[in-house]
C-alpha cells in the first residue's frame, strides 16, 4: 500500500468530527484483500473499527467509481426490510482529506466467501440454504420502492438496457489495451436481441456471493450486502444475470474470478437460482441467457479497465497480475451464450 493512500493524520481529524466518539487511540489503516476495483481499507483505533472506500488510483473511466452514489444508496437502504447493509459514518469525505473522495462505514462482523477453499468449509445443507438466502436477499432489494427510500431520481429505468449496451461499448473503447473483435460481435448479438419488457427497481450492479458477508456463527445468514459502486435504478433482471454469471456448477467452465466457489456439493445449479427468483417476483421467463451473456461482457470490460490501470502502475495490493488473462475467457463465454440464445429465439 502506498504511504500516500491514506493520510492518517487528516483522516483522524475527519473521524474526530464525524464518527460517534471520535478516534480513541492510534489510528491504523490496512488494505483489504479482494477489492480489485475500489481500494478498500480497514481502519482501527484499538476500540473502533471502520471501513474506508475510495476510487482507484490512476486512470478512472467516466461515471465510474462514484463515492457519492455508494454513500447515498447505503444511507437510503439503512432501514430497508430484508436488505442488510453497513451503516455509513458522516458525509462523503472531501478530496483534500486523503487525496480522493471517500466514505467510511461501519465494519461488519462476519466473513466473506471468496474462493472454493472458503466454501469447502460449509456443509452441504449450509450451501443450499445460503444459495436460497442470496436469492431472497435479491428479491427483497428489488421489492424496495425507490421513492419510499428517497431514490426516485437515482437512475432512469426507461431504456436502461439499450443505454447499458452503449455505455459498456464506450467503457471498452476508453480502456482497451488490445483489439478484440469479439467485443463487437457480442455487442451486436446483444443489441439485436434486447429482451422486451422491463423489471424496474434498485439495481445493485455486482450481485454475487463474494459481495455479501455472512455471520461468523451461521454462514447461511447474510449480515451485509457490499460493493454498491455500480448501483442505480434500472432493469433488475441484470442483477440476476450477474449472479448467474458468477455461479458455477459441476462440469461447467470455471468463472475466472470465482474459480469454482459454487461447485461443491449442495450448491444448486444456476437455473435453480433463476427459477426461485422468477417464482418470487411472479415472472415466467427471465430471458436469463441474454442477461448472463451481458453480465459476462460487462465483467470483462471492468476487468479490462483494472488491467489498464495495472499496466499503468496505478493498482495497490496483490491479485492484479492475472487480471488480463481473465478477459478472453469471459468474452468467449459471452459470445457462446448470446449466439446460442439468439439461434434458439429464431427457431
Automatic annotation (TrEMBL):
Name of protein: Phosphotransferase family protein
InterPro entries: ACAD10_11_N, AGP_Transferase, Aminoglycoside_PTrfase, Kinase-like_dom_sf
Species in which this protein is naturally found: Aeromicrobium halocynthiae
Domain Aminoglycoside phosphotransferase, chain residue ranges per copy: 30-254
Signal sequence extent: none
